[in-house]
Design goal:
This protein is an all-alpha fold. The protein has 5 helices and no strands. The relative contact order is 0.09.
């Protein structure tokens, strides 16, 4: 009877151990499933972060491009206003004084904000030459107005100087467009 009782107790103990082993295995499977699910969630979250990062970089590049375009457009407008003042001075006979080349608004932009944003680009560096031509020819034209209305007798020189100034102005605008192109291409090449 003792053997039978001991066998029964051992049988109950074995069944309990088996049940606990089954419970451990089920819990282990649940943990494994949870870990796999968590791993998939982490991978999905990582992919979402990668997409967000790529989109943020793209938006940053676009903002950089828009900023550069705005700076160049404002520079072009400023140049157009300056030319308008030159022509107005010729037409109304007042012969306004053109600032020395290094003190005009374009030169201050070129040496300041322009250099900060675009100083490393070849097309930016080339802007100085057409600008000098514009200032020299504008000053030449206006000097005739300042000297007791000598416009008529120097009309061929004025006409030639204005033509040279306009060609240099076209070159200046072309170079400003190239600055935008260079800054946009180099920015997107960095990504």
């Amino acid at each position: 009877e003792r053997t039978s009782k001991a066998t029964g107790e051992i049988s109950v103990s074995i069944q309990t151990l088996q049940q606990e082993a089954n419970d451990i295995q089920m819990n282990s499977e649940k943990i494994t499933n949870l870990a796999m699910s968590s791993s998939q969630d982490v991978e999905a979250f990582e992919a979402t972060l990668d997409t967000f990062n790529a989109n943020a970089n793209h938006v940053s590049g676009m903002a950089h491009t828009i900023e550069n375009v705005n700076i160049i457009v404002l520079t072009k407008i400023d140049h157009i206003l300056c030319k308008s003042q030159i022509y107005a001075g010729l037409l109304n006979g007042k012969g306004l004084q053109i600032a020395e080349e290094k003190n005009c608004r374009f030169s201050r932009w070129y040496d300041g904000e322009g250099k900060k944003h675009f100083g490393n680009y070849e097309s930016f560096k080339a802007l100085r030459d057409p600008h000098s031509i514009i200032v020299d020819n504008a000053d030449k034209c206006l000097s005739f107005v300042r000297k007791s209305d000598m416009c008529l007798e120097n009309s061929s020189v004025i006409k030639s100087s204005l033509k040279t100034m306009e060609h240099a102005s076209e070159k200046l605008f072309m170079l400003l467009d190239q600055v935008i192109h260079e800054s946009t291409n180099l920015h997107y090449d960095d990504e």
